[in-house]
Amino acid sequence: MRVAAVSAHFGREVEPCVAKVEAITADARAQGVDLLVFPDATIGGYLGGFDPVHDTGLPPAFPADDAVFDRVAAAAGPVVVCLGYRESAGGRFHNSAVALTGDGVLGRHRKVHQPAGEVAAYAAGDAFTAFDTPVGRLGMLIDYDKTFPEAARTLAGDGAHLLACLSAWPASLTNRAPRLLQDRQSRLFDLYDCARAAENQVVVVSANQTGTMGRLRFLGQSKVVGPGGDVLARTWAKAGLAVAELDVAGEVARSRTVLSHLAERRPEAYS
Fold this sequence. Notes:
- The protein is built from five helices and 15 strands.
- It is α/β, with parallel strands linked by helices.
- It has a single domain, classed as 4-Layer Sandwich (Nitrilase/N-carbamoyl-D-aminoacid amidohydrolase).
- The strands form two sheets. Strands 1, 2, 3, 4, 5, 6, 7, 8, 9, 10, 13, 14 and 15 form a 13-stranded mixed β-sheet that branches. A two-stranded antiparallel ribbon has the order 11-12.
- A hairpin with a 2-residue loop joins strand 7 and strand 8 (136-142).
- The longest helix is centred in the N-terminal third of the chain and has 17 residues, at 14-30.
- It starts with a strand and ends in a 16-residue tail after the last helix.
- The model has no long low-confidence stretch (mean pLDDT 95).
- It comes from Klenkia terrae.
- Keywords: Hydrolase.
């Protein structure tokens, strides 16, 4: 199968965001992509900064059944598409992700772990749950979620062979480097992607925003990582599509033939 991670900028205006999703999805379908992962905050962009002085306003919020997702589903057709948005639910707001095809919604995730500044804008999710899709069992992580090994491990333990990681991951705010690839957050972003794949022996499809929002400068660096922690495709700092072709179930099974990390855990020793 072919899996792809999007590296692109998505701003505040909803119509241009949806039009970009439709265009990128059409391109991916033409390339035979089966799983397409967009960044965090695909529809309406991310927060503009982690303080009210530099913020550019909150992203627009949508209920889970908003008509905007019907357009995405129509564009997706047979492709499994994962994308992020600000969800409104019962008077609260969540940083959320949805996975869907033309046949409807396959699964959802609300971001659990929140960095400084997000608490005022989002309520935290409370679960990591994998779900079945036409490309295999899949779990989603949003941004800071992947910093915590327990998040990806929970999804792998729930049977996920694929992890879709949707990010709006910026360069360091406190120690800016002259080039993005020299930034310490750039190193950490790649490290977490590869570590989460290798320690769980799964495929990680990691998408990230590019460009800027307020005082945030996003890293790009979207990639596909194999179950051995090896980067199979990447975009570096520019916009683009990281596409890899692989037998997900076969690669995961091979990686676990001699050493199976999940099966060889010793939970009684970890307390």
